[in-house]
Amino acid sequence: MGRTYIVEDVVEGYLTKQCEQTAGPVSGLLIGQSSTQREYVVTATRTPQREESTASGGNSPDKEWVTEHARQVSRMLPGGLSVLGVFIVTDTDAKDTLTTLRQLVFAVENLISSERLWTSAEDDVSDRVVLHVNPKTRKTLCRTFDVKDPKSVAKPADWKYQSGVCSSWSTVSCCVSVDVLLPLPDNPTATEDTAKCLKVSARAQKAPQFVVGGGVLRLCFLQEGLRGWAHQLESAVCLIDGRRLAADAELAGGQKRNVRQTYSAQLLITPDERRLAEGVQRCGGSVSVSGAVYSTAYLHSNKPKARQAEKLLKRDAVSTLTTRAQMLLEELLTSGGASEGSSRDEHQREQFCLPHRVFCPVEASGPVCVCDYRFSDEGLSEVIDRLKEMLDMDAAEKDLDIRRETPAEVLEGDAADEPTVETAEALQSKRNYFGAAMATTVALLATAASMLYLNDV
Amino acid sequence: MVVSDSLSSDRGTILRVRGPLEFKCHLVSTDARHMLKVISRTFETLKSQVKSESCVLTVCDSPVIIWPNKDVYITPQEITPNAPCDDILKWIQSDEQDPAGLRSAKKKSKKSSAASVINLRLMMEATKTGPLSAPILSRTVQKSHFLSTTFPVDCVVRTTVNETIKDAFERLLKALTHQLCEMEKVTLQHTKGTTLLVPEPLHFLLPEPKGLVTVVYPAGVPDSQLEAQRKELHQQFELPDDWPYFRRANTYHFPNEPYKDGYLRNPHLVLTHPTLDNGKVYLVQGTYSYHHYMQDHTDDNGWGCAYRSLQTICSWFQQQGYVERAVPSHKETQQALVDVGDKKASFVGSRQWIGSIEVQAVLNQLLGVTSKIMFVSQGSELASKGRELANHFLTEGTPIMIGGGVLAHTILGVAWSETSGQIRYLILDPHYTGAEDLQVVTDKV
Q1: Chain B: closest CA distance from residue A454 (Å)
Q2: Contact A374, A382 (CB under 8 A)
Q3: pLDDT for A399-423, tens place per residue?
Q4: ipTM above 0.85?
Q5: DSSP 3-state helix, strand, coil percentages of chain B (rounded to 5)?
Q6: B61 catalytic residue (yes or no)
Q7: Which candidate, A404, A328, A326, places its Cα nearest to that of A369?
Q8: Between chains, do B146 and A281 touch, taking CB under 8 Å as contact?
Q9: Cβ contact A299:A263 at 8 Å
Q10: d(CA A39, CA A33)
């Protein structure tokens, strides 16, 4: 008994379109949601064209390129959506491509899971699908591999098209405030630090580092630092629509089909009882991440459980923050120095704005959205370009939902000694309600108050 | 240093909130003045967190969650803020209740006179109403110090009968804020150089009408170094100096809270007293732990009864705060007897029986406690000692070891009638070989 894949009709049309183009074999990703009984494929996207054609091109897909595409696409998927597998449109015999596809699917899984801060659970589905489409005969071959088992063999699976697969999925969302303060290591170039980075992941070790004024901000350091926050969220008490539900309770108790449900969640956290470093320690400085992230997760409409909703929502919250931190570091690396969105004050403190989250529905009338991150110096057109390049989506500005988060703004003229976390947060929320002019007044008042309190020499 | 509960004479429910509060700050210099400033500022942040709408109190073993700063908003919404506090008790799943919610006759006798406790957990709501702005990453590069720790908040408020949830929780919030102020004082007082001592709140039960009182001590500082503070507290509460009310060993133990060491405390309390004509009950005062055969992985079945009785007595001295020494193991007891010259060195590790004289010697040697030995040539003579035993429990209040022939027991109290001379003894039997189960232990009695 193999897996069953319930696939949106539009995906069939998309794959047909790929068959009709003549530029050679096409590879791509299949995106959707897994559940214990079946899998739902919501959309598909072809691997973007590579500018330089590599020598090894030919008929087999470029493994590194496909996995890199999968990594970027994974960042654009909110909770409940993930890369379920790969497809290939080629007239090469299916049996010959199966090995390549198997390698692809394992490589994709390894890369995506190495970037996660949350650990996969026992009950997570570990089957990934490979789909082979012959453009001439239009025959499809569907197989699954278990990515938790390095010796797994191809198992047959059912591939069924249906309309409106995700049109009545439920949405759970919340706005999670982030307030993390971390010490910078005392001697950033020490070998122990490198060793610690190695433990995090091999990939993270090669990941971007940003050097400013002699200090080093490594991605793996940030990942380690955010691990405590991620753990707090994972063990948080979750309320859905104001109530604490039993883990096995169904989310939409006895609701009619085709009725879309939206739920609002609340997360209650408590500090970790186990402490990693107690007391006073030497450090090379500090890093604070402060603000809020909008987190959302989608659930299929076949009796979703509260426990599943909680799990997917929490994972999304953790992912969205770490993705943005990674993107910030990558951005700083490519812009080769202090980015435009930063400011440095005389107290050796620099502030960077993390990008804010923008949503775009997968289909015009459905609740399911993909997302992208927009830096403060970017326009919406860049978002639209990325949606086209990564997800092969044709979106217009009016389709984008930009109201879930407001862009971060660095506060000018904040003369407090250390990052005053609580003032920054209060100011940001005031900005939403009263407008920029009012916010500036509040900023000046806060500065004056803090100067009185500090009574500096 | 102290918060006292002025309404302690009523027998209302106790609200107890506990939870860790994260304390983190970046110290750009280790100059003392700067450190104190930064620590104070961090405490201000903690206080505003506790007073904010994000502060949440969850009731343990229950779906009830309360937002004390949002007009005391409660979920599930069946409970309103104007309901009496005791209503929350109905929502707590307790092991003692039958599925039918009735109490069996046997369990009725276990109803202790202590008030019921509602345990709450302090948490913060991480979610807020959006839209909010995306995060800012702020980085300061400077060779400096970082302070990171958690403070164990433990705050208690005794409600009055029929007090509404709204009033009780508003008081609890004030108590929480006050505790943070006390913690700040203790932290600032005990910060030296780059060491920081964690402030630890402890509760002490003072004689009525003062009731339950909370004191914040710096963790890790032994009682001996806190004598000055304790003297001050004794003066403040007008307490006599000969009973260690404020030593750590005397912290109030909340009902139904398990002890970390696993021993039962005062199992005799759940029993009903015998009735005698004109009789009065004279009991051991304070707490002791129940020591008996087979505990601590030591198989002393048949020979260890006097050792166990001695352990029970030692536990009394430790728990009333007279000594800090832990209860001695059998080997330690035997070694003490060798040290005073009463036994040969080969005694240690043997399974030899000891009697009252040896118990007296050990108490003197290990605890510096003197004891009186009373001889009775026959068991029946014990009845005539009723007055003396009653007096002992009134004045000294310690458990009594009784040994004779090949058996030893511990007397915890007597019910004695001055007019008829009738007497009944409350005995703690060290020959028990089972587990630390209150039900089994008291049924056997």
Answers
A1: 8
A2: yes
A3: 999 999 999 888 764 444 444 333 3
A4: no
A5: 30, 25, 40
A6: no
A7: A404
A8: yes
A9: no
A10: 6
